[in-house]
Structure prediction request, 230 residues.
Amino acid sequence: AQTVTQSQPEMSVQEAETVTLSCTYDTSESDYYLFWYKQPPSRQMILVIRQEAYKQQNATENRFSVNFQKAAKSFSLKISDSQLGDAAMYFCAYRQAGTALIFGKGTTLSVSS
Amino acid sequence: GAVVSQHPSWVICKSGTSVKIECRSLDFQATTMFWYRQFPKQSLMLMATSNEGSKATYEQGVEKDKFLINHASLTLSTLTVTSAHPEDSSFYICSARDWGLGNTEAFFGQGTRLTVV
Prediction:
């Protein structure tokens, strides 16, 4: 069975600084998708960034970028120029085509001014 | 992006009663929807996969007689918590995928906070 592991329950960063959230996963499949979701206090799930496994290029969305290491089964999220609004719980997620998302346990990110 | 609406946002019910939660895809058709449960400060755990016009597929350990799922149309799936007990208190979230967008992003409802007293 596929699993997703986030080893950092909590992280903190100062405004304008950069922080990296870690995620590893386990799968025997070659074709899959990886995601980072943000869950603010409202608890609405917000997609931050996604990566298709067949793409070698790391995905980037404005201040958010990933370091996708397929062989190592690693998928970390880098947040640059951190803002107070980035404070939230972040979930790494995996899925194959047609299946449900499998989530890691989450990392709570706090941002201080 | 596509919108998924979940209702109600929060509900309080008495032990022994049933509660229905609705999940609607407002601007797309969703042949498949997913129901998750989330305890405070924990991850989302998949409860079941809801398929339009057929029986839902439940994850191991989820009581299908307690958590009834109906997906009668391409835009609506419902989760009914039957004979609710305090331990059923949790945050329930639905998700749907717009297959027309190439089977990539999943869209989430805003969630339902259920409190059983």
In short: The longest strand of chain A covers residues 88-95. Residues 32 and 96 of chain A are 4 Å apart (CA to CA). Chain A has a mean pLDDT of 96. Chain A touches chain B at residues 33, 42-45, 47, 50, 52, 89, 91, 95, 97-98, 100-106, 108 (CB under 8 Å).
